[in-house]
Amino acid sequence: xxxxxxxxxxxxxxxxxxxxxxxxxxxxxxxxxxxxxxxxxxxxxxxxxxxxxxxxxxxxxxxxxxxxxxxxxxxxxxxxxxxxxxxxxxxxxxxxxxxxxxxxxxxxxxxxxxxxxxxxxxxxxxxxxxxxxxxxxxxxxxxxxxxxxxxxxxxxxxxxxxxxxxxxxxxxxxxxxxxxxxxx
Length: 184
Fold this sequence. Notes:
Blueprint: H1 3-27, H2 35-58, H3 62-84, H4 98-113, H5 117-142, H6 148-178
Helix pairs in contact: 1-2, 2-3, 3-4, 3-6, 4-5, 5-6
């Protein structure tokens, strides 16, 4: 696959996805996106799609490609939710910056793992642990009152923990069929 083709697919998918809020803005007063919203969303969607194209092009079995997609989409969703509404309070709450640490664990771990399926299992288990610890650390630092909001934060956080664990499981499945060889 050529570089142009690797760029074209994510660019087209990004453009199509960005049409949804653009059209929504024409028919509803509740959909309000600024130019910066479109730029940030476009960069996030394109970079995620491009990264997947590069990984999928290198080969690997179906479980590896699914694990890669799950990992990339979980990271995208974590960024998107934090930018849009925040997980801990509003998007302006500084506690949400702790989720950047989760992404750093995932990114640096992936680099050190060399994209080997067997090593990616450990990376994503560590990422899930980092995700699990974020609201605990936030509670220790900011000490909010215990409210229903705290329960919702833990619930939303656990959704991401499950997503990271699901990606780890898929990498485990990939490592069983490919003996953990380097796939990218």
